[in-house]
UniProtKB/TrEMBL annotation:
NCBIfam families: PRK12497.1-3 (NF009150), YraN family protein (TIGR00252). It holds the Pfam family UPF0102. InterPro entries: Restrct_endonuc-II-like, tRNA_endonuc-like_dom_sf, UPF0102_YraN-like. This is UPF0102 protein GCM10011521_24080. Belongs to the UPF0102 family.
Length: 122
């Protein structure tokens, strides 16, 4: 079932806000909404030597733990699979160190968690 238009609009607005926040902190956008059948990456960015894969999660409230808590081990694995697939098509970046960040968005604002998970965590 496709996302409701209002839900999709909130998600798009959260991704835009996250991108603006991160670009303001010196990250450079390389790609947006990278989709594979096995996973998706909201933002791919460059931060110094790092390729940063960013998951943006919007939650209206933190009743169930908020945006950060909503990125479980299964979601992390799917992000990693998508990151590997994306890197396979980017030979110039294939050996760059990678980082996985999460931006939790809510009506209260944005919470950027750098290196929110590592490959060793999976």
């Amino acid at each position: 079932m496709p996302a409701r238009p209002d839900r999709r609009a909130r998600g798009d607005a959260a991704e835009d806000a996250a991108r603006h926040l991160l670009e303001g902190e010196g990250l450079r956008t390389l790609a947006r909404n990278v989709n594979y059948r096995f996973g998706e990456i909201d933002l791919v960015m460059r931060h110094g030597e790092f390729v940063v894969f960013v998951e943006v999660r919007y939650r209206h409230d933190d009743r169930f733990g908020g945006g950060l808590a909503s990125v479980d081990r299964r979601k992390c694995r799917r992000i990693v699979l998508a990151a590997r697939a994306w890197l396979a098509h980017q030979p110039a970046l294939a050996d760059a160190p990678c980082r996985f960040d999460i931006v939790a968005a809510s009506p209260a604002g944005l919470d950027w968690q750098r290196a929110a998970f590592m490959l060793d965590d999976l």
